[in-house]
Write a structure and sequence with these properties.
Layout lengths: L1 H33 L6 H156 L6 H6 L8 H9 L1
Helix pairs in contact: 1-2, 2-4
Keywords: Coiled coil, Membrane, Transmembrane, Transmembrane helix
């Protein structure tokens, strides 16, 4: 709209200048014709004819310039129409870009929220990792303690096993000694039974016994046993 107004103004200015130039030319011709110092009429007519020819040429040039200006104005109007169409297209593109920008801004806000949430989650994972590290350290200490206790238990188990074997050996020896004692006791019982029941002596053996010597069968058994 502004371009059309500017072209129209330029055209009016050019037309006004050409009209002013024509008027000035006519005034000069009139002044020249009415001057008392003019030369003869032939010279004046010649100059007048020359001026008329110049005026005709100027009119022809002015007409050509006018047509050129009108063509220029027409072309400017076409260009203005194309420019307006292009401006409308640019406005549509700008509108689409604004919508895309709004969408991008909303997406950017969403991404910032997601980034904040991820940072919070990372901090949480770091805290969990630190806690797990502490727990792992404690568990490793516990494992070392359990290994030590297991080693001590192994040593104690080996000691108990050795003591058990020694006890078994002592038990075996005790059982063997018990059997030996039982055999000895059985033997003693048999000998005691023999001592309690005096044997039947032959008359010859009875004659050999001397009651005055204090020898008795019981003493013999005791001496024989011990």
């Amino acid at each position: 709209m502004g371009a059309s107004k500017s072209s129209h103004t330029v055209r009016n200015i050019v037309i006004a200048l050409l009209a002013l130039w024509s008027i000035i030319s006519l005034i000069i011709i009139v002044v020249w014709a009415t001057s008392p110092e003019l030369k003869d009429a032939t010279e004046c007519n010649r100059k007048l004819k020359a001026l008329k020819d110049d005026l005709a040429r100027e009119k022809s040039v002015w007409s050509k310039d006018r047509h050129a200006l009108e063509e220029l104005v027409r072309q400017e109007r076409i260009n203005q129409s194309l420019l307006l169409t292009h401006i409308v297209q640019l406005k549509e593109q700008l509108k689409a870009l604004n919508q895309s920008l709004d969408s991008c801004m909303q997406e950017n806000v969403l991404l910032n929220d997601n980034i904040t949430a991820l940072k919070d989650e990372i901090d949480l994972h770091k805290a969990i990792e630190a806690n797990l590290t502490v727990n792992i350290t404690l568990q490793q200490d516990m494992i070392e303690l359990l290994k030590h206790n297991l080693s001590q238990a192994g040593i104690e188990l080996e000691t108990c096993s050795n003591l058990h074997k020694a006890a078994e050996n002592l038990q075996t020896a005790a059982e063997m000694q018990k059997q030996s004692c039982q055999s000895s006791m059985q033997y003693i019982k048999k000998q005691l039974e023999k001592c309690k029941s005096p044997p039947q002596l032959n008359p010859e053996m009875m004659d050999l016994l001397d009651p005055e010597t204090g020898f008795s069968w019981l003493g013999f058994c005791a001496s024989a046993f011990f």
